[in-house]
Amino acid sequence: MMKINSGNAFFVLAAAILFLSGATVFAQDKNDKSVKNRGFCENYNYSSGDKVSYKEVRETTVRAGSLLNVDGGRNGGIMVRGEERSDVLIRACVQTAAATDEAARAMAKNIRIETSPNVRAENSADDAHWAVSYEILVPRSTNLKLEARNGGISISGVEGAMEFETTNGGLHLSDIAGEVRGRTTNGGVHVALSGGGWKGSGLDLQTTNGGVHLSMPETYAARVETGTVNGGFKSDIAALNVERTERTRGVRINTEINGGGAPIRLVTTNGGVKISSAVKNL
């Protein structure tokens, strides 16, 4: 069963809206802030009793290194997107809630965003109702280490060694490569694969309480391991389908398709598994 601190629940809900939808719009005009940040932070509509919410976007650019380490803190999701660039653009959505607008704004001033050695937020006051989520643009070849507690993790367009984990939040991955390992306790796993096969040593994702959705071309070459202990199973790809009876408890597949290749592992304990032959935007 999912356990969330009730005092932080409204932050968790907002993180789910942004980071489980995967919908982010990137700007073309860097001088127009109203365009530049559209789609990021704007969908946060908090409510916590009679408290007044406040949010602001902070942006900074730092030098790219061999590893990007991001700590999402108690409440906050992390979205990383690879681009043809040589630096790292960090956008932080700072959110607070207090009895008055003035108090909520004052609370935000206590929050400091650190970028070295790790990206993380610090609050100089003992405030309960605050959160910081991140949208980060990186060079395509970047190693990642990401951690969240109450928030989702989304990665697209990145190739490298990646480790990430969240407790309450989904995992969304597309157009990635390298050595990738991730897990969530309470959240779904959504992966979109394209091309003819995995570039790198493999993909290993797991969730305890949540469904798994894998989208891949029917001609994709890989060793695929997937399954569930308690949940349904459906596959549009014949080579990744199994026959189930009423007595069947759980499903486990570990097989090579189209000649085999790098291991692709996505498993859940409590949740369904769906494999789609058409590549979709997740």
TrEMBL record:
InterPro entries: Toastrack_DUF4097. It holds the Pfam family DUF4097. The keyword Signal applies. It comes from the Bacteria. Residues 1-27 form the signal peptide. Residues 141-275 form the DUF4097 domain. Keywords: Signal. This is DUF4097 domain-containing protein.
